[in-house]
Amino acid sequence: MDKKMAILLIAVFCLLCLGSYMIFEPARNVTYHQINLTNSCSAKVPQTDKISEYTDNLDIHYYCDYDYNLNITSFNNGSPITASQGLLRFENLKEETLGSDKVVDGNFTYYKNNRLGTYTAYVEDKLSNNYILMSSKDLTILHTVYNSLEARIIVTNDELQEMYSVNSSDNSSHYY
After folding, report:
1. DSSP code of residue 49
2. Reduced to 3 states, what is the DSSP secondary structure of residue 161?
């Protein structure tokens, strides 16, 4: 009888562990959709109804997802009107947000803020002039958003014409 009771207790314990894992697994069944972070960058974020988006007078875009505790602040430095002030404000935001513990996981570098319980990643793409600061309490969601970032390089008609004239004049191959 004692052996049957021990097996029954172990089976109940295993079922409780499995059930709690399925209930409390943070990134389970998350559906993602694509949003624009700047005029030249997009990312996949969790799909939810509880979001807030705002763009301030310096063209800094703020995205907040209340269901998944995801905050994204993004800025494109391509605008000559707001570039210097926007970049200065963005640098201040970055200093306020980054945590003290830097963690490098392959090509993914993030900061852990033990006081707030958040993970933060900072992305700076000098080719497309995008600066992105992402924070979340769920590292899996932050990593998924980070891996989904897509930058588009915007080329004006004048720049395209200049590239065409340079390429056609010297008969050599150039990659842009």
Report:
1. S
2. helix
Give 102-144 pLDDT, tens digit per residue: 888 888 888 888 888 889 888 888 777 888 889 999 999 999 9
Fold of 32-155: Protein Transport Mog1p; Chain A (3.40.1000)
Give residue-wise pLDDT tens across range 16-60: 776 666 566 554 678 899 998 888 888 999 998 899 998 888 788
Q: For residue 80, what are the contacts with CB-CB under 8 A and spacing of at least 6?
A: none
Per domain, the residue ranges of the chain are: 32-155
Q: Exposed (0-12), middle (13-18) or buried (19+): which is 137, by Cβ within 10 Å?
A: middle
Q: Which of 147, 136, 132, 145 is nearest to 60 (CA)?
A: 132
Q: Read out DSSP for 95-115?
A: HHH--SEEEEETTEEEEEETT
Q: Would you say 41 and 150 are in contact if contact means Cβ atoms under 8 Å apart?
A: yes
Choose among 35, 84, 34: nearest CA to 59. Answer: 84
